[in-house]
Amino acid sequence: MMRRFYLLIYMAAIAGLLSSCVKEELEYGCTKVEEGLPAHVVLNYKVQRRDVVTRAAQASRYEYRVENIYVFIFDGVGQLHYNHLFTNDFNPNNGEEAANGTLQLETQSLNNATIVGIANVTTATTSTAYAVTKDDLDAIGTLDDLQAYVMKLSDNDKTSIGRSALFMMTGYAKDGDGNTVVTIPGTEGNTPATLDCTLELERTDAKVTFNVVSEQREASWTNFSFTPKLWSIHEVPQQTLLLPAETGDADGEDCTYFDSTPLQFEELTEDETTNLTTGGSFVFYMPENRKTPKKQAENYAQRDDSNTTTEGVDSGKEGQEYVNTDFAYANDHSTYAVLTGTVSYMDGTRAVNAEVRYIIHLGNASDANPNDYDTKRNVHYTYTVRVRGVNDIVVEVEDGNEVRPGHEGDVVYS
Fold this sequence. Notes:
The structure is a single chain. The strands form six sheets. Strands 2, 3, 4, 5, 6, 7, 8, 10, 11 and 12 form a ten-stranded antiparallel β-sheet that branches. Strands 1, 13, 19, 20, 25, 26 and 27 form a seven-stranded mixed β-sheet that branches. This protein has helices spanning 60-64, 134-138, 143-148; strands at 3-4, 7-11, 38-47, 69-74, 80-86, 93-94, 99-108, 110-119, 150-152, 169-174, 182-184, 197-203, 205-214, 221-234, 236-237, 239-241, 257-258, 263-264, 267-270, 277-287, 306-309, 323-327, 336-347, 350-361, 379-389, 392-397, 400-404, 407-413. It contains three helices and 28 strands. The longest helix has 6 residues, at 143-148. The chain is mostly beta strands.
């Protein structure tokens, strides 16, 4: 159920090198060239097709659209060799489900180069959820500085889990083996050289779809239904690293998080026979969040466990002996969803109605790996939540089926 979507910029095999170039195989299989020669390089790019899941998702033309690309080239020790913002000079052909065009770089030949692309930089006519401008990127002089750069959600999007504009995309040029060290050859005359690598741009946001369905646990129950009410997303980061890190994400005292405003489900589903509401769905976007848990859970059911206290117990709630505080295993800043609704069914002649609240931490976890709380950039996560009873839900993400008893609610029998 997890889908990855990539923006690929293809650069075909190396063409005519200057006769003065000396060929020598380097550590990564690159060809060594004489440095400092004029180099005219052409880059072709396109966006792979990806299916749109629901009406609530951003229109595909915005998820694929590229309006500008800022290109960095760094030398073998990480110093800036070249930078340029391509706007009207890269021949974009943006379609509903694809984008393609060409970039032409005027630079100098270089060994052990690292090429980085940043797409949809903020300009007078282009915006994303992040305010990263040409001036911000012009100030970067080393690869280390670029890799450490943290971008924040713009003022208009600092508490938003929707996206109403284009998407920020970033990435490295890689060869066929995934190496990010490439060679830029020199060229003669007006004949451009092409590079034996691919610039892979990924959206810095993750896309998350929730589908909630009813699936009664007991065969003896009748008229089983789950009527969704509200959903909200908690501990959403307000910042992210510009470039992906091997592990972790933007973290530290300066990092901030927010809880989204509770919203109604975007679509509701009904049983065609009984006309009872059986579930619903919603979609949202967020920066990546890859926090380390406080401690290791032994099984999947512990993921959403909370610490408890007897202070603040509501004497008006029959049977309440404690209240939940912070999470016992999950990091305090790991993102989670809260779903509310009503579970109703007939248990023989007795009607059962329960106002329920389900807590679901995000992450591609399973009983074999219950400690994955990661939401990664450029990944479309689809969660299917099966409501099987008042205190019983099952969450499926990717190819795992996990029992999720994280719940609380008031049950009324009549």
